[in-house]
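S.,

Sequence below, as promised.
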Amino acid sequence: MGGLMHQLDALVVTTHHLLYMNEHGFIKSIHNALHPDVYKWKIHDTYTGGVPDAMYAGPAGLLFVEYKYVKTLPARDDTVIRHSLSALQCSWLERMKPSTNVALVLGVADTAIIIVDDFSTNICKSKYIEQSVSRKDVAHWIQAVTHSGGDVYEHKRRISNNSKKSPQDLE
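The prediction came back faster than expected:
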């Protein structure tokens, strides 16, 4: 009985945590999952608009990430997920992409998708479910990009193939 009560308590805490998650909490949860060898900087620039939320560094290079968090997925599979990426943020990512690694990480509940190219693309619920990974997988991807180097697309493909979530986990 004690084990069942412990599992129930853990579920209630997790559910409560996800109900009140925001972008700041989402970023913090990814940072908590990062390997200690990844240098992380949560950027808070009040003077320059469009600067990404975080910078990560390792022996293989830098990675700038803009995070967006949405509390819930839309009801319909073909509905576009509304997030708040501004034109200035999109422009900053596009401008930096030729010289360094950049990404947009769109999170919903306990999952995320990693976007490394067309940052202004519309993401619908079905595409999100198909491409999403866990927050822990995002942390592993950040480590791979900053410590192993190579192609951000290849690291993203590996993370997506190794993710153990199911579409039911998202609803």
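DSSP finds six helices and six strands in the chain.

Coffee later?
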